[in-house]
Design brief:
CATH architecture: Up-down Bundle
Order of helices and strands: HHHH
Radius of gyration: 15 Å
Structural class: mainly alpha
Helix content: over 70%
Strand content: under 5%
Number of helices: 4
CATH class: Mainly Alpha
Low-confidence stretches: none
CATH topology: de novo design (two linked rop proteins)
Mean pLDDT: 95
Number of domains: 1
Shape: elongated
Length: about 120
């Protein structure tokens, strides 16, 4: 089985963990949130991993960096959703702290990836 380059990126591996964590921790949200906050959070979490993966298929470093920027923005969107979910008591304080730690790690990894992509873009 072929392994694609994005699968080797720590940034993508962490995004995958963030997506799985988000799915597992939104399972018990109120049923009326299924098409609201739950859907929004899950789409944002999947967007992080998907944009990192899609960016690796782009030839130019500028395009790659663009997809990393979108992934970063989706991560920040997800943090916003975690905060609101905690405010509404859909996420416990423990879950919120855990989710926030995952987001912080994710943003650092994406920022590093984007910096590398932008540096390579300036050299070419």
């Amino acid at each position: 089985m072929k392994i694609y380059s994005f699968e080797n990126l720590e940034c993508w591996q962490q995004a995958r963990k963030l997506a799985v964590w988000t799915y597992l921790n939104t399972k018990n949200f109120p049923p009326e949130e299924k098409f609201g906050l739950v859907s929004q959070m899950r789409r944002a979490a999947i967007s992080v991993a998907s944009n990192i993966a899609e960016g690796t298929s782009r030839i130019s470093k500028k395009d790659q960096s663009h997809f990393s920027t979108i992934a970063y923005s989706s991560t920040i969107e997800l943090l916003n959703d975690f905060i609101i979910s905690n405010d509404l008591m859909f996420l416990s304080d423990h879950q919120y702290k855990e989710g926030r730690e995952l987001v912080e790690k994710q943003t650092l990894l994406i920022a590093g990836l984007r910096k590398t992509q932008q540096a390579k873009n300036k050299r070419t």
